[in-house]
Structure to design on (462 residues):
């Protein structure tokens, strides 16, 4: 009866095994899918409500929060990082499993007529004991790897968020710059016509004429460069979201042209400390230190013999034997001291890397705060002095032209000065936003905008 059940048990064991299923990657199909991808605003709206329930959703209108929500759904880098978490968690589960038992089957034939049977049959199991420091080190290292995968995901999300932020800054700033340079080019064309009349009348030199012509050509070129920068910003924005074929035209950024004063951007020392300790790059160096610590624990445990239990069964020519062996995997002749020394050196190195990462993060925060202050001082100076004076002069030129006190050439020069002052003010405003983005990047947390609703919602849930 037992012999009849053996094939059945073997069949059931094989049926319980996982079978391999190939999953080839077709790059052409992937490329077509990326090219034909569609944006589902309903799904994005659900994602916005999931991460920030208090945020308002306006169909067809995009802001930094909704763009980030779309990126969480469609960006391939974020998807790859999410898959990395699943892989690391699966590997952490596998690390808890002990090594498989080895089954050894033996048979022997002896041509001995005096024995009751010429055959010897036997089997033995080799069962390594998965206990102690070696097991703990393996499990800890796998758990740290899972943490590292989560920090990689967080870093990927943050990198995408910053790419969206900078693409929006570039797009908005260059749209304004292109419009102003186009106005300046048109103004230079009118000024050129007026100077040509002066030259014809002998009231101006051709040097003045060529200077105005060159300034007009320069304005045309800069307007074209700004338009191209707008196109590049839209491409970068779509790529950051993960839908390169989609154009996000209706994007709003409330308060872009009136950034908050520096006093509201300053964070306390405790906030800076907490933000730095929550940066994924710093956390990853701490994970690497933890893995080095686990590796050292494992090398210390390998100083001692690894035990293997080997129970067996032998049927020797009618006689049943039950052998039991204990195997010891001995450490190296140096009692693993060289490997321990190497692991200690690695741990020390990882500790220095943590210190370096914290120091670099602190320096980045200090540098960003300094740039935020300098950018706002420059913007205030341009708006309060240069722009104010240039617009006042342009207004006076309008009145004098109407009164006949000046001609079109002098009027155009005054108006061009006002346009250049507005361009400089726009560049200063762009510098402020880039400085704020650098500060947020250094802290790895938003300081303004709708993304703050994410943290507020999570805090209320807690």
């Amino acid at each position: 009866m037992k012999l009849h059940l053996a094939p059945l048990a073997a069949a059931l064991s094989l049926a319980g095994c996982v079978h391999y299923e190939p999953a080839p990657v077709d790059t052409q199909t992937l490329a077509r899918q990326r090219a034909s991808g569609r944006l589902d605003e309903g799904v994005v709206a659900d994602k916005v409500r999931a991460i920030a329930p208090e945020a308002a959703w306006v169909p067809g209108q995009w802001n930094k929060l909704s763009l980030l929500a779309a990126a969480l759904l469609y960006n391939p880098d974020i998807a790859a990082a999410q898959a990395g978490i699943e892989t690391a968690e699966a590997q952490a589960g596998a690390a808890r499993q002990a090594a498989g038992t080895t089954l050894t089957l033996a048979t022997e034939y002896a041509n001995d007529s005096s024995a009751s049977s010429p055959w010897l049959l036997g089997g033995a199991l080799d069962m390594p004991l998965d206990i102690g420091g070696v097991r703990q080190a393996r499990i800890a290292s796998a758990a740290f790897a899972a943490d590292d995968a989560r920090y990689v995901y967080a870093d990927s999300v943050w990198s995408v968020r910053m790419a969206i932020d900078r693409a929006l800054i570039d797009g908005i700033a260059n749209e304004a710059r292109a419009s102003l340079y186009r106005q300046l080019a048109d103004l230079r064309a009118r000024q050129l016509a007026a100077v040509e009349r002066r030259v014809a009348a002998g009231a101006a030199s051709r040097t003045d004429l060529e200077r105005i012509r060159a300034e007009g050509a320069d304005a045309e070129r800069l307007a074209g460069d700004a338009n191209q920068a707008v196109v590049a910003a839209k491409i970068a924005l779509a790529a950051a979201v993960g839908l390169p074929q989609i154009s996000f035209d209706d994007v709003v950024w409330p308060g872009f042209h009136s950034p908050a004063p520096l006093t509201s951007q300053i964070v306390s020392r405790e906030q800076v400390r907490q933000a730095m300790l929550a940066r994924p790059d710093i956390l990853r160096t701490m994970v690497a230190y933890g893995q080095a610590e686990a590796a050292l624990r494992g090398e210390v445990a390998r100083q001692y013999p690894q035990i293997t239990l080997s129970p067996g069964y032998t049927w020797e020519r009618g006689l049943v034997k039950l052998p039991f062996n204990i195997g010891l995997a001995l450490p190296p002749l140096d009692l693993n001291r060289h490997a321990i020394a190497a692991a200690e050196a690695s741990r020390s190195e990882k500790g220095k890397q943590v210190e370096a990462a914290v120091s670099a993060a602190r320096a980045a925060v200090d540098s960003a705060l300094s740039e935020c202050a300098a950018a706002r001082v420059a913007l205030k100076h341009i708006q309060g002095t240069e722009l104010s004076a240039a617009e006042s002069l342009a207004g006076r030129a309008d009145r004098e032209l109407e009164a006949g006190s000046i001609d079109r050439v002098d009027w155009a020069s005054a108006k061009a000065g006002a346009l250049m002052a507005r361009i400089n003010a726009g560049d200063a405003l762009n510098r402020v936003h880039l400085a704020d983005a650098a500060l947020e990047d250094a802290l790895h947390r938003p300081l303004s905008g709708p993304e703050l609703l994410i943290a507020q919602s999570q805090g209320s849930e807690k």
About this structure: The chain has a mean pLDDT of 88. The chain has 13 helices and five strands. The beta strands are 102-109, 119-128, 306-316, 319-321, 324-329. The chain has two domains: 40-67, 75-98+137-304+337-447.
